[in-house]
Amino acid sequence: MEKLNSLLMASPYWRQGKSWYEMRPPGDRKILQLLFAVVVTGLIYLLIWEPVSQWSKAQKNNYLYQQEMNTWLHENLSRARDLQKNHQSAATRQELSSVAASVAQQTGITLGRVQPDRKGLSVWVEDAAYQKLLKWLVLLQTKHGVILQQVRIDQLKEEGRVKSYIHLGG
After folding, report:
1. CA 2/CA 18 separation, integer angstroms
2. Are the beta carbons of 52 and 60 closer than 8 angstroms?
């Protein structure tokens, strides 16, 4: 506190303001004190109270949303497990490479290189429309239960065209 006081006393603006304040009549001083109190109160409200209040409301809404999601997930957990089992059994019935190739043909994508390995299937697409590639990936995942283990998409010079590397799993 002493450091602050010494810094204020060293400032010529502070001294000039203090002498200006002391030259005011007592009625003006009271009004200035009241004005100062109102300004400080307003600043505290605008800079501290209101942001904290908004943050609190947002956190409460987020908490309620998370609670609803948690309840919904617990209610639908068994259904999700059943769907997952159905998708997994459908994907294991057909060979992963033939599923990927047939869905690619349906969506109009040309697969550059397809390489099976122990963990799944690696697929390279050298040039494809981004929207078609997304459609292919969504169909693989939703209709055939194929798990997308790794996806790397690079933009080509032509707008809307991409090349990609995708690692699929059963």
Report:
1. 18
2. no
Find, among 78, 74, 98, 97, the residue nearest to 86 by Cα: 78
**Contact in structure between 149 and 169 (CB atoms under 8 Å):** yes
pLDDT in tens, 146-162: 889 999 999 999 998 99
Q: List % helix, strand, coil for the chain (3-state, nearest 5).
A: 70, 20, 15
pTM over 0.85: no
In terms of Cα–Cα distance, which of 115, 134, 137, 136 is closest to 124?
115
Closest by CA position to 131, among listed 161, 164, 155, 111: 161
